[in-house]
Design goal:
This protein has about 550 residues and is an alpha+beta fold. It folds into four domains: about 100 residues, Beta-Lactamase (2-Layer Sandwich); about 70 residues; about 150 residues, Heat Shock Protein 90 (2-Layer Sandwich); about 220 residues, Ribonuclease H-like superfamily/Ribonuclease H (Nucleotidyltransferase, domain 5, 2-Layer Sandwich), CATH 3.30.420.10. The protein contains 18 helices and 17 strands. A five-stranded mixed β-sheet has the order 3-2-1-4-6, sandwiched between helices. Strand 1 and strand 2 form a beta hairpin.
Length: about 550
């Protein structure tokens, strides 16, 4: 497919502004789409699916409809060398532009409708001819013979037309599979089509951005546009709105088509629901009821007397409600509490040797840990370490460290929805005695960077006696550095920093995912520190130390 169809960017430099190596896919796809699909795949991997994949339908800024299938790239299984490991290292997107298919199917439906209606007209003419054969000058035997033949052919043709119509309607109901679609994408596509096809002004109101639907977008868009068109033609409505939210019914969403105008009778609503859908010159054999039944939903009409509005409501299925709930649980909105029980500013020989070095010249190990809980001194243990390397102010994604750790204790069930690590995932993994030496070697001669670093460093400190390793590296905390450069911001949570710096969060609350986000945030902070006259490691540590003590709570 041509990438020009995915973008509204001007056609300059031979299309160099579009997709290319090293270019973010979020210039084409809403990051929520990719994150949601990754969460679905990760859940299926956790449940042991051999070939987990997922697909969704979306619209591009240029108005194209895309069907996207995502397949995971997994680390090789150390036992047999195949790609069935549990570690997700990337993904492949397979794109299919279904815009032309959508338009072709609409055209095919129009041909079919014209064919069936033309056949009915021909049948009526044939019936009229049969009636003319009753003239008295035609011999009785011949008349009976022709009458029999014509009636037989008429009956056969009528049956063929009836079968064609029935088969067409059945095919239309099942032509497209139900697929995951972000609700806002469906609303945006419907608004555009309403305006193009009907000429009505249309806008969105109260659309829940977190709603994912399991829909067949082809017929559903037809139904919404058809209803809007009839409002315009029969009730002279000039303006409509679309509203989307979660319904009180379990696993359902409600899509409302709202307008202001005169009351509508129940008989009228039922007629619109049962009539074959037609908008202007376009028509289809499907009815609104067919579309509703295809989605195992419901359709009705209501009035909002307080707002002087009325609306049609379509009850639609949410996308995989159970998986959606699990995925939501894996993405908490809050970071850990802030910790102050570890001295981040202890001076060591390595620290003194690096204090005068510019920040932009240093090598960094940006890391994060996932743990069984929040109390290292009370027995909580590390269950995963993830780290990324920054050299010459560049994040080297390929040079990363990620390892699950067997804590040799239970993982509290309440923490599993946060980090997504099940007990069976760490069972048999290396213990902390084996993992920390490897991580120590990975971080050798670098500055350690973490968000809320006191938390992670406290876990490492408590293992010094057990492992014989001392992490005496200089430490920088992106939480404190954020408070330094943006003192008036209310929140310095990692999520807030990522949003502030437009950093994409994928894999939140996985050790490597958080480390990657922290690394990108840190790179954004370095030039802001320079604007405040903070250029060296020593200056950054001194300024952060003042912020650190200012934030202590007694």
């Amino acid at each position: 497919m041509q990438f020009r169809a995915l973008s509204q960017a001007p056609g300059v430099a031979g299309g160099a502004e579009l997709i290319g190596l090293g270019r973010s896919i979020y210039g084409v796809f809403d990051r929520k789409l990719v994150t949601h699909a990754l969460e679905n795949i990760q859940q299926r991997m956790l449940r042991g699916a051999a070939q987990p994949s997922t697909q969704f339908v979306t619209t591009t800024p240029a108005g194209q409809l895309l069907r996207v299938q995502m397949a995971p790239v997994r680390a090789a299984n150390q036992d047999n060398g195949d790609d069935t490991g549990s570690e997700l290292t990337g993904f492949v997107l397979m794109l299919e532009n279904i815009t032309r298919d959508y338009e072709a199917e609409s055209a095919k439906d129009q041909v079919l409708l014209s064919l069936t209606e033309g056949s009915r007209s021909a049948l009526a003419n044939m019936q009229a001819a049969i009636d003319m054969l009753d003239y008295p000058d035609l011999k009785p035997a011949m008349r009976d013979r022709f009458m029999g033949v014509i009636r037989e052919e008429t009956a056969a043709l009528s049956e063929r037309v009836r079968a064609l119509e029935a088969g067409s309607a059945s095919s239309l109901k099942t032509r497209w599979p139900l697929e995951d679609m972000l609700g806002t994408d469906l609303v945006n596509a419907a608004l555009r089509r309403i305006e193009v096809v009907t000429g009505l002004s249309a806008s969105a109101v109260e659309v829940d951005p977190g709603v994912w639907l399991k829909v067949e977008s082809f017929s559903l868009l037809q139904a919404v546009v058809y209803l809007a068109g009839r409002l315009k033609d029969e009730f002279e409505v000039k303006f409509v709105q679309l509203r989307l939210g979660v319904a009180s019914s379990a696993g359902k969403a409600q899509l409302d088509l709202l307008w202001s105008g005169q009351a509508m009778s129940t008989e009228t609503v039922m007629g619109w629901e049962m009539d074959p859908m037609r908008v202007g010159a376009e028509g289809a054999r499907l009815t609104v009821r067919d579309v509703v039944e295809r989605h195992a939903g419901a359709f009705w009409f209501e009035r909002e007397r307080a707002r002087h509005q009325a609306f049609f409501r379509l009850l639609l299925p949410l996308a995989n409600p159970q998986e959606q709930a699990e995925a939501t649980a894996l993405l908490p909105t809050d970071s850990r509490p802030e910790y102050y029980d570890f001295d981040l500013f202890k001076t060591t020989e390595l620290t003194r040797s690096l204090d005068d070095r510019p920040l932009i010249e240093l090598a960094y190990t940006v890391f994060d840990t996932e743990t069984t809980g929040l109390n290292p001194s009370q027995g909580d243990e590390i269950i995963q370490i993830g780290a990324a390397r920054i050299v010459n102010s560049k994040l080297l994604r390929q040079e990363s460290f990620e390892q699950l750790v067997d804590p040799r204790r239970s993982i509290p069930p309440a923490t599993i929805p946060i980090h997504g690590i099940q007990p069976e995932m760490v069972r048999g993994q290396p213990t902390i005695d084996q993992v920390l030496p490897a991580f120590h070697a990975f971080a050798q001669d670098t500055v350690l960077v973490a968000h809320n670093a006191a938390f992670d460093m406290r876990f490492l400190q408590l293992k010094e006696k057990q492992t014989g390793l001392v992490f005496d590296h200089p430490v920088l905390d992106t939480l404190l550095l954020s408070a330094l450069v943006h003192p008036n911001q209310d929140s310095h949570r990692l999520e807030a920093l990522a949003e502030r710096f437009n950093v994409t969060i994928v894999g939140r609350h996985t050790a490597l995912g958080d480390a990657m986000v922290t690394a990108e945030v840190f790179l954004k902070l370095i030039p802001l520190l320079a604007e405040k006259g903070i250029h060296t490691l020593g200056q950054a540590r001194e300024a952060a130390q003042k912020t650190y003590y200012a934030r202590l709570k007694y």
